[in-house]
């Protein structure tokens, strides 16, 4: 309970090409689903939170921490990291545009608050966002986050980030989710 949720290779997408913040959040949602942490509808809930409460998820310059409350679509605690080929605006007055989207899924309310606090502390060094945005491997991202090797144990879990730069596609593929 004192660590950041696991970050398997399947939950890291580097250089995603997206058209807007919704597509960026969907890319993080798909990564969480690929890792087994959530069902696909979790991405819709993350988007709904931002639509309802605004861009408060943009917690630092260039960084969005997309999440939703625990729910039936969360299978297990999980983390996803998506770097964007081109930054996108979320509507935050000071921290836009976003270059890195971190997706978070937790299964209970206490862990929700604790995980957000732990992740926010990880980004106290403002240089971390830029370094993650330029990362070339899931191992490099984990290293920057102070994490060890992936815990999912899959064989060669998605060598550069499951689809590389085209993952996330355009806003058109949001309809297919």
Name the features.
177 residues, alpha/beta, 5-stranded mixed β-sheet, 5 helices, 31% helix
Largest sheet: 5 strands, mixed
Give the structural class: alpha/beta
Count of β-strands: 5
Q: From the alpha-carbon coordinates, what is the Rg to the nearest angstrom?
A: 14 Å
Helix fraction?
25-40%
What does this structure look like?
This protein has 177 residues and is α/β, with parallel strands linked by helices. It is 31% helix and 18% strand. The protein has 5 helices and 5 strands. It has helices at residues 21-34, 41-53, 109-122, 127-133, 138-144, and strands spanning 12-16, 58-60, 63-67, 78-88, 98-105. A 5-stranded mixed β-sheet has the order 1-4-5-3-2, sandwiched between helices. Strand 2 and strand 3 form a beta hairpin. Helix 1 (21-34) packs antiparallel against helix 2 (41-53). The longest helix is centred in the first third of the chain and has 14 residues, at 21-34. Residues 151-177 have low confidence and may be disordered.
Strand and helix layout:
Layout: E1 12-16, H1 21-34, H2 41-53, E2 58-60, E3 63-67, E4 78-88, E5 98-105, H3 109-122, H4 127-133, H5 138-144
Parallel strand pairs: 1-4, 3-5
Antiparallel strand pairs: 2-3, 4-5
């Amino acid at each position: 309970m004192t660590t950041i949720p696991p970050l398997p290779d399947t939950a890291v997408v580097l250089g995603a090409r997206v058209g807007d913040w919704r597509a960026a959040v969907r890319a993080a949602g798909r990564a969480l689903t690929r890792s087994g942490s959530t069902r696909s509808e979790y991405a819709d809930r993350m988007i709904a939170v931002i639509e309802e409460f605004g861009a408060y998820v943009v917690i630092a310059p260039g960084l969005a921490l997309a999440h939703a409350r625990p729910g039936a679509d969360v299978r297990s605690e999980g983390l996803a990291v998506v770097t964007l080929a081109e930054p996108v605006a979320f509507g935050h007055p000071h921290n836009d545009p976003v270059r890195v989207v971190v997706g978070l899924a937790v299964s209970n309310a206490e862990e929700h608050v604790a995980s957000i606090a732990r992740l926010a502390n990880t980004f106290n060094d403002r240089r971390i966002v830029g370094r993650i945005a330029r990362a070339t491997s899931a191992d490099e991202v984990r290293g920057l986050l102070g994490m060890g090797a992936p815990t999912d144990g899959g064989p060669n879990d998605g060598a550069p980030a499951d689809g590389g730069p085209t993952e996330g596609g355009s806003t058109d593929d949001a309809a297919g989710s």
